[in-house]
Structure to design on (411 residues):
């Protein structure tokens, strides 16, 4: 009995996707390759089990094994993030969007004022975009980056907080290439008596590995997805000070979710064990080194980058001096086996469907073992394709050969 024999149509599609992932340069900043072990737990019989509730307090029978698995995921998360004893972890959020909405539901009332990063400057849909539930339910006031440096201007954020007196201040981004000063954010929140929340979904792996500043232990709540730099299954984690634990747990279940996906939670436990190793810390260091090297090479080739560089795992190319839009650049690069996603740049004059930027990240190529010298090669391919689109098929061929030297985990 196997998928290959019984559902060859789907089996073939999975094989095609596996080959695509193997043959390309995966540069989407939020993607990664998980290990065989993470995949094995995700595809296990744990998907069969309903476990509404929390470990040792479930609404269904037969959870004696699943309880141990969820306990293990919690304990390993605490270890991976070096959480103090008075911190609590909820490993049940299905993914990033429910995770953030659950925190709001726990700590806010509809109509409350929240401060968060503007989507166009690098925030996330769940950080109060008017088209998202968060923006409809709460009164979000958005801060952005400085028009000059394209970096966060903490003085401006402090002034805004003083004026709008938010109930919660959120720091966290999907397209911001610089290190975040969490201590400064905490001071700003404290000065106006606001709850401090960090969404570290993008930088979770860097924070756990100690290569990016951490909001723990001084923030109130920290959320992260588990499938980006943390290199785990798709899922979400909420870490919070014990005083918020009851409200957060209630908001997750029964507030917003039903039965937790115990296969994903087991897979998360595997990933957290991997994160808490010297090998992972080396990986996270290399992710940042690669991002800095790629940023430098692209700038040497004449590309403008938002904020002029990168401190973390990503960079944003500003194509306004290149006579090409983000959508066309994304499609062209994709046709050459270079997978990225288009992105707004701060103060963009173009629309989100076809903005002025391209977001690039190094977590996935670093998982394949690529180093700084490989980043200059990648920069030269990106340059070639954007300046001379006709070379795309040739570059695709070269990349296919090149990636064979770097087997991806889990493929
Ligand atoms: N869609 C994710 C990203 O690519 O950053 C965030 O949810």
């Amino acid at each position: 009995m196997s998928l290959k024999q019984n559902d060859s149509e789907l089996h073939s599609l999975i094989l095609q996707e596996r080959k695509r992932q193997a043959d390309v340069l995966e540069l989407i900043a939020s993607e990664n390759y998980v290990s065989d072990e993470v995949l094995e737990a995700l595809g296990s019989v744990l998907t069969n089990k309903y476990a509404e509730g929390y470990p040792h307090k479930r609404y269904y029978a037969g959870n004696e094994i699943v309880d141990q698995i969820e306990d293990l995921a919690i304990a390993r998360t605490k270890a991976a993030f070096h959480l103090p004893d008075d911190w609590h972890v909820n490993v049940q959020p299905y993914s990033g969007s429910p995770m953030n909405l659950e925190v709001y539901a726990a700590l806010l009332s509809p109509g409350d004022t929240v401060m968060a990063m503007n989507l166009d400057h690098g925030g996330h849909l769940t950080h109060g975009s008017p088209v998202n539930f968060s923006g409809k339910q709460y009164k979000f006031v958005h801060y952005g980056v400085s028009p000059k440096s394209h970096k966060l201007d903490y003085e401006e954020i402090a002034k805004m907080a003083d004026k709008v007196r938010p109930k919660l201040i959120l720091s966290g981004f999907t397209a911001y290439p610089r290190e975040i000063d969490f201590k400064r954010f905490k001071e700003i929140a404290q000065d106006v008596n606001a709850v401090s929340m960090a969404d570290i979904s993008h930088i979770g792996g860097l924070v756990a590995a100690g290569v990016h500043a951490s909001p723990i232990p001084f923030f109130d709540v920290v959320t992260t997805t588990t499938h980006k730099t943390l290199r785990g299954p798709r899922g979400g984690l909420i870490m919070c000070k014990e005083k918020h634990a009851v409200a957060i747990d209630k908001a997750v279940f029964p507030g917003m979710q039903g039965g937790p996906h115990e296969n994903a939670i087991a897979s998360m436990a595997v990933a957290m064990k991997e994160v808490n190793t010297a090998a992972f810390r080396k990986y996270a260091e290399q992710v940042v080194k690669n991002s800095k090297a790629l940023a430098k090479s692209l700038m040497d080739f004449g590309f403008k980058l938002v904020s002029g560089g990168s401190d973390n795992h990503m960079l944003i190319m500003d194509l306004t001096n290149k006579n090409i839009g983000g959508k066309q650049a994304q499609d062209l690069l994709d046709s050459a086996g270079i997978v990225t996603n288009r992105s707004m740049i701060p103060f963009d004059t173009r629309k989100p469907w076809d903005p002025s930027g391209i977001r690039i990240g190094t977590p996935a190529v670093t998982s394949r073992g690529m180093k700084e010298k490989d980043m200059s090669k990648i920069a030269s391919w990106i340059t070639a394709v954007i300046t001379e689109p006709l070379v795309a098929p040739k570059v695709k061929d070269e990349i296919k050969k090149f990636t064979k030297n770097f087997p991806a985990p889990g493929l």
Observations:
- DSSP finds 16 helices and 15 strands in the chain.
- Residues 30, 96, 124, 174 surround D-serine (CB under 6 Å).
- The CA atoms of residues 206 and 212 lie 5 Å apart.
